[in-house]
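Example record for the data management plan.
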Amino acid sequence: MSADFSERRVKMVDGQVRTTDVTSAPLIEAMLSVPREAFVGDGQRDLAYIDEDIRISSGANGGGSRYLMEPSPLAKLLQLAEISAGDSVLDIGCGTGYSAALLSKLARSVLALESDSALADGARSALAVLACDNVTVVTGPLQQGHAAKAPYDVIFIGGSVEEVPAALLDQLAEEGRLVAVEGQGNSGVARLFFKTGGVVTGRRAFNAAIKPLPGFERTHAFEF
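Corresponding structural encoding:
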């Protein structure tokens, strides 16, 4: 079965990732080496490499359903961040840990933040089995980031948001990058935020329809 999953990883990369303008050699190597099936439930392992989002939590406690992101948009977003081997990364909404495992192959250190304690526990277990020793999983509110270990060279938000909170932009290091998708469904846009001279600017990168990350809903003020 492990050989079969290895073949599926190759097919995923060749059929879903390379075909969407993902050319980063370190990222492609990471996606070929990290077993995606280790980050879904036992009953979902045969679905691990499909070109769709996979639900990993039903959000029974009112937190909203959570998903393992489809490989193609995940790869495009990680490539957009231009992660280098010396970078420290904040992975917001790490879920079961797949994105953190990929990031562990690209960066010096990864702080994986997760608000769902059950998902966080699963991420710790899976990452430990794979010896991703440069990843630390922390449980806490996603929209607040993790200021205790800031600043970060890269901040990756693993789901769409209505807007990026200022608290996260404040946690960027000088020359740091934040990658996020703002907007939901077909209106979603991947944006790259960059800090230089203490000022954060952002630019549109490409359209991206990914599942929303709960906790980032904009608060609408009451109007008369």
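Summary line stored alongside the record: The longest strand covers residues 172-182.
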